[in-house]
Amino acid sequence: MSKLPLLVVLCIATVAAAQPVYESSDRDGPVFSDIPSTGAREMQLPQTNLMDSPPPQVATQPAPAVAPYTAVQITQPENGGTVHSNTGLFSMAVALSPNLRTDRGDAIAIKLDGTVLPVRRITLQFDISSDEWQMAAKDQVEHQVEVAVVDRAGMALLIATPVRFYVHRATRH
User: Fold this and answer.
1) Which residues contact 95 (CB under 8 A, 6 or more apart)?
2) 62 in a domain, yes or no?
3) Which of 33, 54, 131, 172 has its CA 20 to 30 A from that of 17?
4) Average pLDDT for residues 121-145, to the nearest whole number?
């Protein structure tokens, strides 16, 4: 093993401890020590380059966690109820706890007869338009509607139990 790495380690260790370093010679070359011996001379080492430690990072408080949604329910139309509409236009209402957080981009997504409607709602009372009805509704008497609270990316945060309802269209005799 070379003596040079040992010398560097000794120099660093002794400088760090602020002790003098002594150099003497033997048949293999210089010998360094922190203990004076006969014929050893004290070495004058250069000033160490010290840096101040950066100030400790102040831990920032994480943003308070927002309570998750705990309940969502379709209140209109009623499960098993009947909607009277010749055009497909009908009203819906949703109960949600806690309130819808539109400031975070949360919204209500609707699925009618298995088809997700393209427009998300940001209120808890809204209408299904005739155009949405024509696009999504199956040609049958019984229909199913589902709602989900979704985040900005469209990921479902909470899904309501689906509601089955009937549509009654007036006819002339």
Assistant:
1) 71, 72, 73, 75, 124
2) no
3) 54
4) 93
Q: Which residues pair with 33 in a beta bridge?
A: 22
Is 96 domain-assigned?
Answer: yes
Q: Quick one: 108 and 155 in the same domain?
A: yes
Same domain assignment for residues 38 and 75 = no
Answer yes or no: are the C-beta atoms of 167 and 82 closer than 8 Å. Answer: yes
Say whether both 24 and 85 belong to one domain: no
The answer to whether the beta carbons of residues 23 and 43 sit under 8 Å apart is yes
d(CA 14, CA 35): 11
> Structurally, how many domains does the chain consist of?
2
Classified as helix, coil or strand, 138 is coil
Locate 38 and state its tokens.
């006969």
Length of the chain: 173
Put simply, whether the predicted model's pTM sits higher than 0.70 gets the answer: no
C-alpha 151/C-alpha 157 separation (Å) is 7
Top-confidence residue, 21 or 134: 134
Question: b or e along 135-164 (b: 16 or more beta carbons within 10 Å of the residue's beta carbon)?
Answer: ebbeeeeebebbbbbbeeeeeeebebeebe
Looking up tokens 């003098």, which residue turns up?
20
Nearest CA-CA partner of 133 in 112, 109, 148, 114: 112
Amino acid identity at 113: D
